[in-house]
Amino acid sequence: MRAAHSFTLSVEVARAIVGEATNRGLRTDDVLAGCGLTAALLADVDARVPAQVLLRLWEDVPRMLGDDCFGLHLGERATGVLSFAGRIFAASATMGDGCRRLLSLQRLFNDVHRVEPVEGRGTFGLRVRTRHSPLPVPAHAIDFAFAWLVASARRATGRPLSPVTVRFEHGRRGDVAEYRRVLGPVEFDAACNEMTFAASVLDWPFAAHDPALLEILESHARLLFARLPEAPTFRARVRDAIVPLLPGGATIDRVARAMHVGRRSAQRYLQAEGTTFAAVLDEVRHRRAEAALAEQGVSIGALASALGFADQSAFHKAFVRWTGTTPGAFRRAARAACSRPLLTPPTTPAKTRSKTGVNRTLSGGITAVAMHARRSGG
Fold this sequence. Notes:
Layout: E1 8-10, H1 11-23, H2 28-35, H3 39-43, E2 48-50, H4 51-65, H5 70-77, H6 83-91, H7 95-104, H8 106-109, E3 115-120, E4 123-128, H9 139-157, E5 165-167, H10 176-183, E6 193-198, H11 211-227, H12 234-242, H13 252-258, H14 263-272, H15 277-295, H16 300-306, H17 312-323, H18 327-338, H19 355-376
Antiparallel strand pairs: 1-2, 3-4, 4-6, 5-6
């Protein structure tokens, strides 16, 4: 099962980048070696790729090709790029129908950044905010997404579709004339990434509309959705980032830096999930302290240091606050508990006992350790 912090994207994006790199003269092995992607994973059309791998590809391939407009050039090819999304889009009835289907399936392609529909006076469009994203978004990736949608819509309608507005959060880059050629007039350093079209475009019919194909593709999409892990929370990512930083002091600045987000953004994301950095740090320290004391193999002083406390006294106070007992009393109770069976003999055959029942018994045993420690004192 995927770790909570490991955001993923569809392998189709990686396949598109690597394919373009190969077509333009780079060796596939060189491209894969640079980002840690394997040929086996690339060959699995339904696979998910860690977001960090995609970040490396978006950074490395344009640099290796010397193409400052790589995302635009990849997106405008349309044919063969993002084949699954492309087929669903092209088989839709109209531009509006195609955009609606893509929005409903977006987590299959990217479970990091949310694309929102926007409506204006006589316009409709798509918006994605990435400036304060939990993960950085390369400018090439946004360029690609916008260029791909425009090129795909032109191909599907057979008409010279042009956006009304195109805005990018990233600054001016590459040859601005290329942006105008592919997308029309563009605005850089905007508050968000946004592309809008005239509302009348929603009703433009698609030449290859195919209800039967859509039924097959969306049935497959449902299978892919069923395989997706639960959407990761920012709190879980913070917990994972805290652990290796504990010995040297897991401050919010150090953790945010390790996660590639700003301090304020980290605080805002945690607040949105109803918690704070201090609460998450406390939770991590509490869990690791109890586990370490139960295992008996480390001194209390060493444990205090490993958890990032200034001294043993600070750890002692924190542990009493968490559990109502001292570290020493908790350890003695754990030793006493280990000297007698925590689990009562099953009254039914082992094969019929539920895993939940065993887990509850184990949890009861840990709870008993803490209760015994409080009764016996520190």
